Amino acid sequence: MQKTIRIGTRDSQLALWQAKKVRRELLELGYDSQIVPIKSTGDLVLDKPLYELGITGIFTKNLDIAMLNGDIDIAVHSLKDVPTVLPEGIIQAAVLKRANYNDILVLKDTEEFFGQPNGVIATGSLRRKAMWLNRYPTHKVVDLRGNVNTRLQKLEDNDWNGAVFAAAGLERIGIRPAGAINLSWMIPAPAQGVIMIACLEKNDFVKDACEQLNHYETQVCVGIEREFLNQLEGGCTAPIGALAYVDEKTEEINFKGVLLKRDGSKKITVNKTAKMGRHRYLAKDCADYVINRGGKDLMLEDEEISAVKHHIYSTKKLSEDQKKTLPHTIGIQDSDFIKIRFNRIPPKVMKNEIENVIITSQNGVEAILNSFTKNELQFKDIYCVGRRTKKLIENRIGKVTHVAKNAKKLAEYLAKELDTKEVTYFCSDLRLDILPAFLKTQDIVVNEVEVYKTMLSSEKISDAVSGVLFYSPSGIESYLKENSTDKVAFCIGETTAKEARKYFDKVEVANMPSVESVLELVKTYYASPS
Fold first, then answer.
1. Residue 41 has what pLDDT?
2. Distance between alpha carbon 413 and the CA centroid of its chain, in Å?
3. CATH assignment of 1-98+191-214, among 3.30.450.70, 3.30.565.10, 3.40.50.150, 3.40.190.10
4. How far is CA 390 from CA 96, 153, 176, 384, 403, in A?
5. CA–CA gap between residue 494 and residue 385 (Å, rounded)
6. 29: exposed, middle or buried (C-beta count within 10 Å: 0-12, 13-18, 19+)?
């Protein structure tokens, strides 16, 4: 009596469709079989992205165990879910002819969001997320898990613009929406669209049966893709795409591969061809190409980022050297929340010598020098705020008569020391009233010259950010346009901190009014056991 082949499969609709296809093809060859559904860890844990689960073969592990225990004879998988190195004793018995390998976008509404900065796309794939962000860096990608039916329902229930799926999965069970868009620019996962059959190496009866189902051209192409993945030491935790296909006219294998940074900010691509039969080193050559162009460093960057425990955001662009002062456990992003535009200062302002000049920021210095050279400036006494502003003035303009720690202290000094009760204040359109208001109460005339404009340039930051670095009250004003106050405000000085306390429950102030001191404050804060 002929043995009945027990087909192990996950119990999702798609997995069962694939198992039934294998069963039909075995039946056509004269083999009896039955389907044995088994749940996988990937089906049971739906509240975390796949790369966070840290299990090799998350969708195949339970089927491997069932096979090794003798509960099933073969396992049917989507090959893209199978680790590149199979467990000892288990082999790839066959691959069926490849179906559609493309990714597709299922839209919620229309395509208009493509050209907009705030699109929201859903996917549980690290590769799809990285490739989407590489193409649309201002969009947001949210996690989406579950079988295809569950994911389609989540798309329906949420306010997203669309979700990315493997075309083959939706097409196989007949639920591809009519308006789905083919993402031909997105390089698929290695072996996407391919059904694979695994069996025990020692089971000759099953091996003989499965070998008759094998599609050779598909086997060659997915073998190259999976070797490329293995050479890069990738898997579920690295955004890697690979596609090999045979050009029937030239009998050449065309290969294209990509490795991306998880946030999509960097990518390395490779395109090579090889004659069919002379393709032995194609995967290795392509992997070496990626590695030689910084592939390992790119993956290492993501490894370091994954070790980040605290995420902070600077509302002012920082230098790479400044960022490097922070430990790897603190991840920092930055953007200029304040943009500066210099005004053209009328020549008549500088026509005569100016006796008492007040400059309270480095931007004020740069703005003055944007309109006049050092030799054109006739400043008798210069008063400023901050040692860095003082240094810049003395390097670029001339001697500073007095420097104060903040605007209030400078105003108090001037009220006591000035003989001539008139000052010229080079300032921004947005500035604190502390200095001019105090001087006016002391009967000192304040001539304000608006030398630059301060423009708010807010940006929505991630919910994962726990601390924000502020350098001015204007920076806080800009931040509040888009963001919440449920974070720690790290402030460069007391004036900024005073403004922050109006909105934030947790406010920390640097010992010195410098960026370096703010970064040191951040390190100290997160190093504490609180």
1. 52
2. 49
3. 3.40.190.10
4. 74, 62, 66, 6, 7
5. 13
6. exposed
The helix (H) or strand (E) run that includes residue 316 is none
Please, what is the end-to-end C-alpha distance for the chain in angstroms?
70
Strands of 351-444 (E only): list them.
354-359, 379-385, 402-404, 422-428
Q: Is the pTM of this model over 0.85?
A: no
In tens, the pLDDT along 110-162 reads: 888 888 888 999 998 999 999 999 999 999 999 998 889 999 999 999 999 99
- HSE on the CB side for 140, CA within 13 Å? 12
Cβ-based neighbour number of residue 429 at 10 Å: 13
Q: Residue 132: CA atoms inside 13 Å, Cβ hemisphere, count?
A: 27
Query: Is 48 within 8 Å of 236 (Cβ atoms)?
Result: no
Q: Which pair of structure tokens corresponds to residue 472?
A: 């001015």
CB 326 within 8 A of CB 467: no
Q: Which of 81, 103, 302, 381 is catalytic?
A: 81
pLDDT of residue 72: 95
Give every strand in the sheet of 506-509, ordered side by side. Answer: 330-334, 310-314, 465-470, 488-491, 506-509
Q: Are the C-beta atoms of residues 272 and 252 closer than 8 Å to each other?
A: no
Residue that the structure tokens 């370096």 belong to: 516
Largest CA distance in the chain: 115
78: nearest Cα among 216, 172, 144, 150:
172
Q: Are residues 392 and 401 in contact, defined by beta-carbon separation less than 8 angstroms?
A: no
3-state secondary structure of 272: strand
Q: Do strands 445-456 and 338-342 pair parallel, antiparallel, or not at all (unpaired)? A: antiparallel
Residue 73's CB is within 10 A of a number of other CB atoms, namely 23
pLDDT score recorded for residue 117? 86
Multiple choice CATH, 307-337+457-527, 3.40.50.10090, 3.40.50.300, 3.40.50.150, 3.40.640.10: 3.40.50.10090
Q: Which two tokens stand for residue 243?
A: 């596609």
Residues 488/491/496/497 CA torsion (nearest 10 deg): 50
Residues in the chain: 530
The predicted-structure confidence for 53-74, as pLDDT tens digits, reads as follows 333 455 678 898 889 889 999 9
The residue type of 409 is: K
For tokens 């050297």, the residue is 321
Separation between Cα atoms, residue 380 and residue 401, nearest integer Å: 9
Mean pLDDT of 296-321: 84
Query: CB–CB of 357/383 below 8 Å?
Result: yes
Kindly report, as residue ranges, where domains of CATH 3.40.190.10 are found in the chain: 1-98+191-214, 103-182
Per the annotation, the verdict on 81 as an active-site residue is yes
